[in-house]
Design brief:
Radius of gyration: 16 Å
Number of helices: 6
Low-confidence stretches: none
Number of domains: 1
Strand content: 5-15%
Number of strands: 8
Order of helices and strands: EHEEEEEHHHEEHH
Strand order of the largest sheet: 7-2-1-8
Largest sheet: 4 strands, parallel
Shape: globular
């Protein structure tokens, strides 16, 4: 089977890409219910003194709220905080000038819905990783397609679960002496550029049955 069904996260971590990188098609159900305090609207980057959590504020996000209807809250000044945070974290990274303009361009679109922002960012990250998976947004009106289902596998409330299939492979980061694993994929892309895909390949702890 060469199709995977996953959640749609905000600048996903390395474990996510270890899961999806060898599939030909990534299907993302829009009718799934939005759950607070998940990777859907947050990621982690490495600053000089700490790991920083970036969170996209949303309107509502009540229980049983469909993910496709969750709107970004631009009344909160998060956009400047995120862009400034990324610049502070990776401005001196070897591949900052290569990647940042594309990311900044996505943010400046001021997407209304969270899924739109996440999809744009995921598309860019897959392209820079040279992962050619086809991204398909699913809705309940379409036919059901058989696929490996990894929804719910990566969960901020189930710390360490991702380590079942992700094995941290150290690479040179901008800050710190000790390697910090499983940050947002942009940490790997800014620091390693064309070598990022190779590091992901080495980071897979167990081979997934996607044949």
């Amino acid at each position: 089977m060469h199709i995977v069904r996953t959640d749609l996260f905000y600048l996903p971590n390395l474990a996510y890409f270890c899961l999806v990188k060898d599939f030909e098609e990534i299907r993302i159900p829009l009718e799934d219910r939005y759950v607070k305090q998940t990777y859907r609207n947050r990621c982690e980057i490495l600053l000089a003194n700490k790991v920083e959590k970036l969170s996209v504020p949303v309107k509502g996000g009540k229980k049983n709220h469909r993910f496709e209807a969750v709107e970004i809250d631009y009344a909160q000044k998060w956009l400047h905080v995120h862009l400034r945070g990324i610049q502070s974290a990776y401005g001196k990274a070897p591949y900052f000038e290569y990647l940042f303009p594309d990311l900044e361009g996505v943010y400046k679109k001021n997407r209304r819905f969270l899924w739109e922002l996440n999809l744009d960012l995921l598309t860019i990250c897959l392209r820079f990783l040279n992962i050619r998976a086809n991204l398909v947004m699913e809705d309940e009106s379409g036919p059901f397609i058989e696929a490996m289902d990894f929804r719910g596998v990566l969960d901020t409330k189930k710390e360490g679960l991702e380590l079942e299939f992700y094995h941290p492979v150290p690479y040179t980061q901008v800050f710190g002496v000790d390697f910090v694993p499983n940050l947002s994929i942009i940490d790997l892309l800014f620091c390693q550029g064309p070598e990022a895909k190779y590091i992901l390949d080495q980071s897979v702890k167990k081979k997934l049955n996607n044949t």
